[in-house]
Amino acid sequence: MGTSEAALQILSSGCRILSSDPYASNLDWKFASKFHINCVKKRALRHKQLFNCSSFLQNQIGIQRLKMIGDYGLFGNTSVDSLRLLSCKCQQSETVGGLTSEDGKGTWFVDSARVLHFNGAVNPTNVLEFGNVQQKQGNGELTSNGAVKQGKESLPTDGGALGIGRDASNKVTVDSIEDEAWNLLLNSVVYYCGSPIGTIAANDPTSSNVLNYDQVFIRDFIPSGIAFLLKGEYDIVRNFILHTLQLQSWEKTMDCHSPGQGLMPASFKVRTVPLDGDDSSTEEVLDPDFGEAAIGRVAPVDSGLWWIILLRAYGKCSGDLSVQERIDVQTGIKMILRLCLSDGFDMFPTLLVTDGSCMIDRRMGIHGHPLEIQALFYSALLCAREMLAPEDGSADLIRALTNRLVALSFHIREYYWIDLRKLNEIYRYKTEEYSYDAVNKFNIYPDQVSPWLVKWIPNQGGYLIGNLQPAHMDFRFFSLGNLWSVVSGLATTEQSHAILDLIEAKWIDLVADMPLKICYPALEGQEWQIITGSDPKNTPWSYHNAGSWPTLLWQLTVACIKMNRPEIAARAIGVAERRISWDKWPEYYDTKRARFIGKQARLFQTWSIAGYLVAKLLLADPSAAKMLITEEDPELVNAFSCMISANPRRQRGRKNSKQTYIV
């Protein structure tokens, strides 16, 4: 027997070893046997790929240095060739990976491939492979997530092939839905040099046009990462955080222009390419997309903000603060903050962005200061403030961060809030006011108040509007922005309860047959033609134009748990469970009541699956939501009170504060 065959035989005997992970030991053991059976089916193929990777590692172990400029120069003036992809050059280590070298220049190395535990089962090959292997004739290529590929991407089969149980009436039971969801989530895991690094956007076997749905998206991985954290699977989240941080340092250009230092990619893909100078060997590389290949070529503003939020959640959940304390991670946080806090022409504390720079990544009239970006910005600032190491080099940044938090919270709470009383006030606005104490500061014309809003706004409840610019208020209700304003504390306690009151009052509009509308109402008619450019994908009540997105379940659940109103989330989850599995986990739903699967929706969409799982896990253990929730500290509350007292329209709060804040 050859060496490789003998090694395969030895390694394949170890799949029944049980996990020593204290978190995994408490999980449902019914997963273990089913996962073991599927794991064995793919082991031989996967080991072959790992041996190829290992031979490369033995001969090509190297380092990946970061290029930092200006006051970020903690790693020395070393560079990365922007035309060269991030190669698989992992050093084996029993300890936590980090920065090495005695010269203090911060040589980078990635954590070694480690055994990933789940539900009591261990895969000693450092790879979880669940699902059936598709038999191929001839030479097959193994993709990064373990599927065999020949010509087209091999994708997992539907829920029936996963052994999902149904009762006598052919209805999917709740337990079987969760089992199916975990199977599908694990089938979506992407591996880099044998270690889990993320989840692909979708595994839709019905779609022949993959586009970029086979990539790992930063924003899409967030619910997947939270789900893994809640199950005690920390390695995949840690690997994701460190690898995406390494991609942050790249110099990307489009038409000879480079974006700001610190920009996080929208997505990345693991590719297998020939090794330089040796056509007989291959290596795995990470190929990031910063928007230069995306539809519309829009840079992802939200990626860095979500990355900071996930970094804090990882530390809170795992108890491992060593990751956020690393010099390279601290530098990554500072780079994102400096990019967001950089001076510009804008007079407002909100972030000014282009259309399509967040979850709504197509033209939908959200350019300017969209609520979703502001809520994530506020949350990321609070998380960064908590994680930044207190040192002399961070003092100015922390001071600027605190000032921005105060100004941003005041601006959003004061000018974005709308309820029946505020709407009546806007209806009576005087225009063309020129003074420092003007009531109508943004010169909003009362005729902008749409007839639909007058009929729709409830007597009890309110929300934060979608956007605010000079002479323009976008009165649409955007779910993610409002929910994350509750989670982050950007909305006051009173406003947060009012937002949930509105969701309950307008349940038939926002939830209906499938939670949750991404926005309400839809752009229709001439308004749709002008604002979207007649986008055939964003037709009224579809996709980003008031489509219903199941992934929003997890943000709704966190918001409800924070406000001690979990029954709202439980009701929404119950609505989703009636059909989401039967419909094969679509990306989104169409029509006013979300009765149809989206006309261009991908099936087996990973963040639809992960969003459901996170919602279920958090309802079962509400205390776990603390890793995502942020609260104002007394210093910020005091500063906000000072701003309220300085506002001529609001004479309340503490008037004689000794501390001065620059706004």
From TrEMBL:
Its EC number is 3.2.1.26. InterPro entries: 6-hairpin_glycosidase_sf, 6hp_glycosidase-like_sf, Glyco_hydro_100. The lineage of its organism: Eukaryota, Viridiplantae, Streptophyta, Embryophyta, Tracheophyta. It holds the Pfam family Glyco_hydro_100. One of its GO terms (biological process) is carbohydrate metabolic process. Belongs to the glycosyl hydrolase 100 family. Invertase that cleaves sucrose into glucose and fructose. The gene is NINV8. This is Alkaline/neutral invertase. It catalyses: Hydrolysis of terminal non-reducing beta-D-fructofuranoside residues in beta-D-fructofuranosides. GO terms for molecular function: beta-fructofuranosidase activity; endo-alpha-N-acetylgalactosaminidase activity. Keywords: Carbohydrate metabolism, Glycosidase, Hydrolase. SUPFAM superfamilies: Six-hairpin glycosidases. PANTHER family: NEUTRAL_ALKALINE INVERTASE 3, CHLOROPLASTIC, PTHR31916. It comes from Manihot esculenta (Cassava).
